[in-house]
């Protein structure tokens, strides 16, 4: 076990939470048994934000060092093993009686890097918008980062479920407390209720796997995946898929997503679009083909049909939106529908393309939410009909918006182009008609993306909106870095694709 790498990954968010908790000091004077005076020195919100930002950047550096130390052949790079639940005096149930192992490979490392990159961007973009309970908000952000690190690196499916559910708690608080409008509690309830129902069904399936194999260790389940009968594999895979479909989300399990995005603060929308929606795709990669190959193979046509409906429905639903945030939210339904199709084709090209789509979407969709939030902060409306000619009043913002729209439609050389090209190729290999529907989704994405970008950036400015300042330095650094990352991964995708494919050969195929 490599304790140096595990320290670089898990210690910064943990220390950051502790640092925020003890920030500030209590001073007093005591004479005998009497307390004469107690004074609590408050710490400025800006100092709290700098503390959280420092530890989030330190965590990003740790994930990059972990990436450089990765096994390039696709095997696991061990981080740590916790043996405190072993022995005759177990304090936890027998289903959790084995050692708890954390490790990373070519699949999980890029989700870790995505998490480490999105969290400091979320803190920076919400620097001025969070004005109350600042310490609690920052603690939720760092706790969420720690839980996501654990989800993407744990090698026990039962602990995966526990951490998967643990992510709900800080995100529920971010939605319900720091939401932007009056319906924020209803949005938080939708988010928690939908995810919890799907996860309970997955828990029953995990219990069934434990009854068959006698363990919840991931590597053991992968090495003995054909022990489970075929009819039982179908039922277990269906239960796991329902939980992941809510999280992705794909049609018809997407109802909670637009409401959550509309009501969430900017950091909540960025975290939802950038990381939390990828938990479902990551779970399918880990739990479908490696553990339940027959069930995934038999149910693949039904899942592909749902993905096709999601692509078409999500695209047409995006075209009819009048709210800029709802438009970006519905576009996520269409993009993740494409990712779900290629996840079940059981093809190395499709699986690689699906993972690449999720990584690209995590950057581009987060950037779109940041841009529309900047627009709302300037003009205090999210209705598309009021915006026109922003290239005159906000030229830097308009330039970044056009580049982001090109990345959103997967125009070369963006990172989305690589993922969608591989996904289309895999779809045609699986069935030509599926490839045709996937291509229609690509065309429709160009329709709504260009309509939105042209409608608000070009033309003569309307009289209802006043001229406002362009992006400031902090906003420019965030958006420009995300644009560069979105296009850099498309220009040089080989170093990402090779590591992902090696790990897919090692586990999923």
Describe the structure.
The chain is built from 21 helices and four strands. The protein starts with a helix and ends with a helix. The chain has one domain. The longest helix has 32 residues, at 348-379. The strands form two sheets. The chain has a two-stranded antiparallel sheet with strand order 1-2. The protein has helices spanning 3-22, 45-68, 108-125, 134-153, 157-166, 168-178, 184-213, 218-223, 230-247, 256-263, 266-276, 278-287, 293-319, 324-343, 348-379, 390-393, 395-408, 415-430, 432-457, 473-491, 494-507, and strands at residues 25-31, 34-41, 77-82, 100-104. It comes from Placozoan sp. BZ10101. One of its GO terms (molecular function) is NADH dehydrogenase (ubiquinone) activity. It is found in: Membrane; Mitochondrion membrane. Keywords: Electron transport, Membrane, Mitochondrion, NAD, Respiratory chain, Transmembrane, Transmembrane helix, Transport, Ubiquinone.
């Amino acid at each position: 076990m490599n304790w140096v790498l595990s320290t670089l990954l898990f210690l910064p968010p943990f220390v950051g939470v502790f640092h925020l908790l003890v920030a500030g000091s209590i001073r007093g004077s005591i004479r005998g048994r009497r307390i004469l005076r107690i004074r609590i020195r408050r710490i400025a919100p800006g100092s709290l934000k700098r503390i959280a930002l420092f530890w989030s950047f330190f965590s990003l550096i740790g994930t990059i060092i972990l990436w450089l130390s990765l096994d390039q052949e696709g095997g696991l790079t061990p981080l740590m093993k916790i043996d405190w639940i072993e022995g005759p005096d177990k304090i936890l149930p027998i289903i959790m009686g084995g050692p708890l192992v954390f490790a990373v490979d070519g699949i999980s490392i890029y989700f870790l890097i995505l998490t480490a990159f999105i969290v400091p961007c979320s803190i920076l973009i919400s620097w001025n918008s969070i004005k109350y309970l600042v310490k609690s908000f920052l603690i939720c952000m760092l706790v969420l980062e720690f839980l996501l690190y654990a989800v993407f690196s744990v090698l026990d499916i039962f602990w995966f479920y526990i951490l998967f559910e643990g992510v709900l708690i800080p995100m529920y608080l971010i939605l319900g407390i720091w939401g932007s409008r009056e319906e924020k509690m209803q949005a938080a309830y939708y988010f928690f209720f939908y995810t919890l129902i799907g996860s309970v069904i997955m828990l029953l399936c995990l219990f069934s796997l434990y009854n068959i194999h006698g363990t919840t260790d991931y590597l053991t389940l992968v090495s003995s995946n054909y022990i489970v009968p075929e009819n039982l594999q179908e039922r277990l895979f269906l239960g796991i898929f329902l939980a992941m479909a809510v999280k992705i989300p794909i049609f018809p399990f997407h109802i909670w997503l637009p409401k959550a995005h509309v009501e969430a603060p900017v950091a909540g929308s960025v975290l939802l679009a950038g990381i939390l929606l990828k938990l479902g795709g990551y779970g399918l990669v880990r739990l479908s083909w490696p553990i339940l190959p027959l069930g995934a193979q038999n149910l693949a046509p039904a899942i592909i049909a749902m993905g096709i409906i999601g692509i078409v429905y999500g695209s047409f639903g995006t075209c009819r939106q009048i709210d800029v945030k709802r438009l970006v939210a519905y576009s996520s339904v269409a993009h993740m529908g494409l990712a779900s199709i290629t996840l079940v084709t059981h093809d190395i090209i499709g699986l690689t393309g699906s993972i690449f789509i999720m990584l690209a979407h995590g950057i581009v969709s987060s950037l779109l939410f940041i841009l529309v939030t900047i627009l709302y902060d300037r003009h205090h409306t999210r209705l598309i009909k009021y915006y026109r000619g922003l290239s005159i009043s906000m030229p830097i913002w308009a330039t970044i918006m056009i580049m982001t729209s090109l990345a959103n439609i997967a125009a070369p050389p963006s990172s989305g182009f690589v993922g969608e090209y591989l996904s289309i190729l895999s779809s045609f290999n699986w069935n030509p008609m599926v490839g045709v529907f996937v291509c229609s989704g690509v065309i429709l994405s160009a329709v709504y993306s260009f309509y939105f970008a042209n409608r608000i950036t070009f033309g003569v400015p309307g009289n209802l909106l006043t001229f406002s300042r362009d992006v400031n330095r902090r906003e420019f650094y965030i958006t420009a870095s995300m644009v560069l990352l979105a296009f850099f991964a498309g220009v040089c995708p080989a170093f990402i694709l090779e590591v992902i494919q090696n790990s897919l050969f090692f586990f999923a195929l």
